[in-house]
Each structure stands twice: as C-alpha cells, then as structure tokens.
Write a structure and sequence with these properties.
single chain; alpha/beta; Rossmann fold; six-stranded mixed sheet; three-stranded antiparallel sheet; 10 helices; 11 strands
C-alpha cells in the first residue's frame, strides 16, 4: 500500500477546474452510453447540487466520446420521467456493443420491503429497474447515488454487471453526498490511483467513499452513508475499506469472492493507449487480466512451482497483446 490515504485525502475536494484537459477522441470507438437520471429534488438547494453533478457527468462524456442523456432536468412536459427512462432503456436493449452506464442522482426511500428512487411523478423501485434492464445485452453499470439505495444492489446484481450504491442499507435514509464526490472523481485525472492515465469505476468508487468518510469525520458527525460495490454478481457488495490500493484484501464470510477487478476495467475517459487498442484486443486482455487476479488470490493454496507455471503463460499472452497493439499503432516519432 503506497500511502493511499494521503493521495485520497488530498483529493477530497475536486472541482470542475480539475477536469482532465485532453480532447475527446476523434474517429474512434464510441465510449459508453451514459444516462443520468435526476430525481425529485425537494428543495432549490438540492436542485442546484444535482444539476451541478449532472454537469460534471456531461463534461466527462464530452471528453470521453460517450453519448450523454439526462432525464429530470427539463420542464417535465408530456411523459413522466419514469416513462421516459423506461422508453430509453427499451431502445438501449437494441444495442449490443457500447456499454450502458446508468447514474441515479437524487433521493430514495425504503419501507422495510421495497426500495424506490424518487422521481417527479411515479417513482421507480429496484424491481422495476431490474425488469427494465433484463433485455439489455450490452455491459451495464448502475451507479445509484441516492439514499436508501443498498437494496438496488441486491436486486440488480447480475453476472457481468457492475452496481454501485451510496448506502449499505435501505435504512440509511439521510441525504447522501456520495454522488457529488463520485461525479468529481470520474472526471478528475488525480483520481487515477494506479497512474495508468485513466480513472476506472473502481477508482472513482474508492475516491468518493473516502471523501464521504472524511466529510463526516471533519464535521464530527456519525457517518450515515456507506457505499458498496458489486461486480461479481453475488449481490453482496464490498465496501471501500476492504481495499488496499485498488486490490480487495479483506476476506468476506464464507470465503465469498470480493469485488473490484471488473470495475477497474471500466473507464469513461480512456488513456491514449487504451483508446488506440481495438475492442477485440481489449476484451481479450481484460479476460486474461481477470485470470491473473484470480490466480493471485489463490496463490496461498498453490505451490510456488504451480503458481508460476500457471502465471507465466497468462503474462506472456498479455505481453503479446500489447506488442500487437504497438505494431498496429504508429509511434509518435514516425508521424
């Protein structure tokens, strides 16, 4: 652990002035489709905050060559926000390649049985959203930054899907600040913890979680929100304090697998090298990297001979992918 708390705490207040300055890639693979849903605000103060956070997502999408759609900021004429979201997700089910990122910004409720995200007009429950996402075949990430959002994690958890919630329980019902810190981190190059030139969903989750913790500590208040990340489909979720750097290190009960590896492979603003890599090579590289991470987790149960015998072929194949990509892309000196 390379003193992770110091860089984390130095990034707790991230402003729009800290955004990355690289231009959006031209004539390249399009980034994710990002749908930001702004719920019922309740007060003018919340309306201002939610609009600001949405603006950061829009900036990130512009820089990342991603399609951006916002629901809940217009005059709400015609169909309800619930109907608009359902219609957009139905159209998204026709897509098979570009990943879908669904971001919920606002307030939530939980009555002990059903969790809902509050919209202008009819709300949506975790079950509603689960049904609407079933036909979507592209990779999905759901970032629910609302209060009482934890039940959405269990309901939406699925193989190949990433779910992030601002709370660890439906009974954490106070206003959550996680959405602010997450939106600031996703567009800030200083949130790149492993210094690979891009900020992953995992890194944004870790930065935002530590920022929330620091906020309550500095205010001398008991924290009323504890974010969770699920990316292995088991519906349990992992908190930020279970990570050392970007690796999960604390073991769950019953030896349940931890989360984070897949979330670290999802980026809105890719580095130049990542942008240049064709999707098929990137997908192959990602799969090999997951195998490496899983092997490292199992190292204690293997002999050194068996561990390295299984590790070396994976690393050689990853190296070949990078060599293949380097040969495909002209160097800066040759241009």
């Amino acid at each position: 652990m390379k003193g992770i708390l110091l860089p984390l705490l130095s990034m707790l207040t991230l402003s729009a002035g800290d955004v990355t300055t690289s231009e959006a890639p031209r004539d390249t693979e399009r980034g994710p489709t990002v749908i930001v849903v702004v719920g019922a605000t309740g007060t003018p103060e919340y309306a201002t905050q939610f609009a600001k956070w949405t603006g950061l997502w829009e900036q990130a999408c512009a820089k990342g060559n991603a399609k951006f759609t916002a629901i809940g900021l217009d005059e709400n004429e015609g169909s309800s926000d619930r109907a608009s979201l359902q219609e957009i997700l139905a159209k998204q089910s026709e897509q098979t390649s570009a990943a879908l990122w669904l971001v919920l910004i606002g307030h939530g409720t939980f009555d002990g049985r059903t969790a809902k995200f509050n919209l202008r007009g009819p709300d949506i429950s975790a079950g509603d959203l689960a049904e609407w996402l079933k036909p979507v075949r592209s990779p999905v990430a759901v970032i629910d930054t609302a209060s009482s959002s934890a039940p959405f994690l269990k309901e939406l958890s699925s193989a190949g899907r990433i779910v992030i919630t601002a709370t660890k329980s439906g009974f954490e019902q106070n206003f959550t600040r996680f959405g602010q810190y997450f939106a600031e981190a996703i567009i800030n190059s200083r949130a790149d913890l492993d210094k690979d030139g891009q900020t992953s969903l995992l890194e944004a989750f870790l930065i935002a979680s530590h920022a929330v913790s620091e906020f309550y500590s500095a205010a001398g208040r008991l924290a009323t929100e504890h974010a969770l990340l699920d990316d292995n489909g088991d519906g349990l979720g992992t908190p930020a304090e279970w990570f050392r750097g970007i690796r999960p290190v604390q073991k769950a009960r019953d030896d349940a697998s931890l989360d984070g590896y897949r979330a670290h492979q999802r980026h809105l603003l890719r580095s130049a090298g990542e942008t240049a890599m064709p999707p098929d090579l990137r997908a192959k590289r990602d799969q090999l990297e997951l195998q490496v991470m899983e092997l490292r987790d199992a190292k204690a149960s293997l002999s050194d001979e068996e561990y390295f015998a299984r590790l070396q072929p994976l690393l050689r194949e990853i190296a070949r992918i990078y060599e293949q990509n380097d040969q495909r892309v002209p160097s800066e000196k040759s241009r």
